[in-house]
Amino acid sequence: MKTFSPSAEEAKAAREWWVVDASGKTLGRLASEIARILRGKHKPTFSYHVDGGDFVIVTNCEKIVVTGDKLDTVRYYRHSRYPGGLKSRTMREQLGRFPDRVLYEAVKGMMPKTRLGRAQMRKLHIYAGGEHPHMAQKPKVWEV
Q1: 52 phi and psi, to 5 degrees?
Q2: With 0-12 CB in 10 A as exposed, 13-18 as middle and 19+ as buried, what is 115?
Q3: What angle do CA 27, 116, 11 make, to 5 degrees?
Q4: Measured CA distances, 12 to 82, 119, 120 (Å)
Q5: Mean predicted confidence (pLDDT) in 79-98
């Protein structure tokens, strides 16, 4: 019996589109499930060195649930590349202004910190509302 190793062409041909509704879901549990789909770990042909994951569309990310006191203790930092340009926001402020970035950063922290991980993150599409422009790809609903 030989070991099966998928090629990049085979993995690209087997990609699917999934839509996930984030309303009422817990942030970390949803992010880990999305990372699993992006990496392709839900498929029997999973391999660490091949991008065999699927595309994921997340809708209603402004209705995500955060447990504990993380809304006021977790901070998001960005820098303008000028001296003294460090800015920070709490998770509550970030969810109010840019709810898609909160979920993006949570998923990004669960992905590999390599070129392959960055390529897999490009297959993630997050929208604050319930509408998305990817209906032509005929996405299937993924129940989390």
Answers
A1: -110, 15
A2: exposed
A3: 95
A4: 41, 12, 12
A5: 97
| Sequence spans of domains, the chain | 8-141
Residue 142: closest CA among 47, 48, 10, 53:
53
Dist. CA 137–CA 144, nearest whole Å: 21
pLDDT score recorded for residue 123: 97
Helix (H, G, I), strand (E, B) or coil at 5: coil
Strand, coil or helix: 80: coil
Tokens standing for 125? 């599409």
pLDDT in tens, 106-138: 999 999 999 999 999 999 999 999 999 999 999
Q: Which residues pair with 89 in a beta bridge?
A: 76
Other C-beta atoms closer than 10 Å to the C-beta of 78 total 10
105 token code pair = 């950063």
Q: Specify the CATH architecture of the domain 8-141.
A: Alpha-Beta Complex (3.90)
pLDDT score of 14: 85
Of 13 and 54, the structure prediction assigns the larger pLDDT to 54
Arithmetic mean of pLDDT over the chain: 95
